[in-house]
Write a structure and sequence with these properties.
This protein is α+β, with helices and mostly antiparallel strands and about 400 residues long. It folds into 4 domains: about 90 residues, Beta Barrel (conserved putative lor/sdh protein from methanococcus maripaludis s2 fold), CATH 2.40.420; about 80 residues, Beta Barrel (Elongation Factor Tu (Ef-tu), domain 3), CATH 2.40.30.170; about 60 residues, Beta Barrel (OB fold (Dihydrolipoamide Acetyltransferase, E2P)); about 110 residues. It contains 3 helices and 21 strands. It has a 6-stranded antiparallel barrel. A 4-stranded antiparallel sheet has the order 4-11-9-6, with no helix packed on it. A hairpin with a 3-residue loop joins β13 and β14. α2 packs antiparallel against α3.
Length: about 400
């Protein structure tokens, strides 16, 4: 009998324990069901709604163009002797870019120098010979004049005849004419020699200038964009042939492309922020909007404030933000995943205890550099999830596992 009672007592105890376990499991399941799904807080990104400025921008892309470009042409026929500057190198006005050689021109210049030296030597000899000859003739004429005067005095004393006096006078006059004719002939000879020397010097000078032009120098401060194809030492080039492209001298500008759907948001005079490598930014301004469209895009001509920035170069691809509007005192938050400007979307807001996410319907406004504007559904200080929550959007609330990293 006691054994039977013990058996019943044990069975009842086990039944009570089993029932308690069922209640415990059911309570846990019910609690979990009431709490909704759970998600690890560490997997989520959060953003705080704050009040501040919202700068609306229009994104654009394009490239840097020089304000001034110049083709470097061969100043003379010749053979490339050396290229002194590599493409992409900044140069100053007067810097040596390229050297040509021209053996024929160099030989012609040597011969011209020899001819000029010979002409100057002949000029000096002609002047000396003319001077000596004139001096000799003048001395002879003086002697004839002295004899004529002596005979005339002798005639006055009755020592000679009138015929002899006239003869001596004629000889003196003839000697004077010979001197004058010799002077004129000598001067003509010297003038001809001087002209020949001057022409020889001018010819040599012109050849020297042509030789100097074989040193091709930059005519502006800028950038050597590129050498012409196949240009290298040993290559023959003809007079006027294009050798290189130089850019610069007047700074740089940007040509930017904007989708046609944003054309109404862009106006001349708007500030542009052009993004360069290493997180550097230069400012510019929209100066013109080209009326034609390319590939459903409009093209903007943008001046650059810091056009001398050393990081700018022709053909450089850039991204830019055109500042279309700045709104002060807006409610701003980082855009949740998949949310576009002007959208109304479900987002999950963190409760005050930081343990549960509540689904709320939010109307968003414009997107700017600082984030997206909140028009309704959230208040300043709210924390929302910016991670993609599309798998949970059917639930009104989601519980968090762990503490969110805010």
């Amino acid at each position: 009998m006691d054994e039977l009672l013990d058996r019943r007592r044990n069975g009842l105890l086990w039944a009570v324990l089993a029932f308690a376990l069922v209640l415990l499991i059911a309570g846990a399941v019910l609690s979990r069901w009431l709490a909704g799904p759970r998600v690890a807080a560490a997997e989520l990104a959060f953003a705080r709604v704050h009040r501040g400025s919202l700068t609306q921008v229009v994104r654009a892309y394009g490239e840097i163009r020089p304000e001034h470009e110049e083709t470097v042409s061969a100043p003379s026929t010749g053979v490339v002797e050396a290229l002194h500057v590599a493409p992409g190198t900044r140069v100053r006005k007067g810097d040596l870019l390229l050297t040509l050689s021209n053996e024929q021109l160099e030989g012609e210049y040597r011969r011209a120098l020899q001819a000029a030296r010979k002409a100057r030597t002949e000029l000096a000899r002609g002047r000396a010979e003319t001077k000596v000859e004139l001096l000799r003739l003048r001395l002879s004429a003086v002697e004839y004049q002295v004899e004529a005067e002596a005979v005339e005095r002798l005639l006055a004393a009755g020592g000679t005849s009138r015929v002899e006096v006239e003869k001596k006078k004629r000889l003196a006059e003839l000697a004077a004419r010979i001197v004058e004719e010799a002077r004129e002939a000598g001067q003509a000879k010297v003038d001809a020699l001087a002209l020949a020397a001057s022409e020889a010097d001018e010819h040599a000078r012109r050849l020297a200038e042509r030789l100097a032009r074989l040193e091709v120098r930059s005519r502006l401060d800028g950038l050597l964009q590129t050498w012409s194809d196949d240009l290298r030492p040993g290559v023959r080039v003809e007079y006027g042939q294009a050798l290189a492209r130089l850019s610069g001298g007047g700074g740089y500008r940007a040509l930017l492309h904007v989708p046609v759907r944003h054309a109404h948001r862009v106006q001349p005079g708007m500030v542009v922020q052009i993004h360069l490598p290493r997180q550097e930014t230069v400012r510019g301004k929209v100066v013109a909007i080209r009326p034609q469209t390319e590939n459903d895009e409009i093209v903007l001509d943008v001046s650059i404030d810091d056009a001398g920035n050393s990081r700018l170069y022709p053909g450089q691809s850039v991204l830019a933000d055109i500042v279309a509007d700045t709104r002060s005192g807006a409610l701003v938050v980082d855009p949740p995943a998949g949310v576009q400007a002007g959208a109304t979307a479900w987002v999950f807001r963190l409760d005050r205890e930081g343990r549960r996410l509540q689904r709320v319907l939010v109307t968003f406004g414009a997107i700017g550099r600082e984030g997206i504007a909140v028009e309704s559904g959230l208040t300043e200080g709210d924390e929302i999830v910016t991670t993609d929550m599309s798998d949970w959007v059917e639930h009104s609330g989601v519980s968090l596992q762990g503490q969110p990293a805010l």
